[in-house]
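Sample intake — Ketoacyl-ACP synthase III
Collected from: Hymenobacter busanensis
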Amino acid sequence: MFLHHVAAYLPHTVVANDHFTRRNGLSSDWIIERTGIRERRRAAPGENTNTMAIEATKRVLREAPGIDMAEIDLIVGATYTPHDTIVTLAHAVQHAIGVADIPVVSISSACSSLLNAVEIVQGYFALGKARRALVVTSEHNTAYNNEDDTVAGHLWGDGAAALLFSAERLSPTDLLVRDVITAGAATVGKATTAVVLQPLDRSIIMPHGRDVFQYACQYMTRVTEQILDRHRLTVEDVTWLIPHQANRRISDVVLRNTGLPPERLVSNVETLGNTGCAGAAIGLADTLPLLKAGERVVVTVFGGGYSYGAMLLEREA
């Protein structure tokens, strides 16, 4: 299986830390010290999870070399901030691109949903039920966020990304998906209460941030090492590490634990905030043009609930 192209969509409105200083007294320096976040994007009135997903999809189809919209035979959407729980983002994307009578699936495993979506594509490809798949990740965190929450209200940003996968290589620049590992960790710590979004309450809360931090560092380190070990690789063989973009301090701990040098980290949390399962995909869109033949990328994620995973990509020589 190959990753053909990735494109992202970000809302135009930028919300800097001083917004929260005015709102609830949190200083910019305090937010930066604890999270690394300096600013984040906010969806405009009329924008939502589905519209952002559609914009990302239009971009990836416009930019992708050698693929026609009519060839798409599977759409997998991923979000924990749905605009509509019946007309899911996968349905919205299908309607927008006008490709009829194909499977459309939407999933949620919190911020790790990207890799579960990729696994669904692997399954369809393996069964011969699809050959060209579109994975779309989109989060409208600010629709649910409570900005007066001094624990987590300043963390969230909005954004989307779309990824095109194919069963066979379509271009010399395609990335081979060498492996994907995912798992649930709902049995550890405060997994089922640490991060909560109950739609009827319409608020993302994080009462146990320290627990999230601890297990995110632990599991993203562990699964990164696991996927490298499975392929007899070391950190020296990794060109870029793209972690879930939740907190710069978490990323730094994972770097330190794995022994990867800081210059190999892809980080957008400083300017986008926590964009949920779209964050690592947005980072992948930025990284794709930089990759050279023989270079590798590890994407590692952790989500509330808890769930985690890693993906190993390689641009073959």
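Post-analysis note: The longest strand covers residues 175-184.
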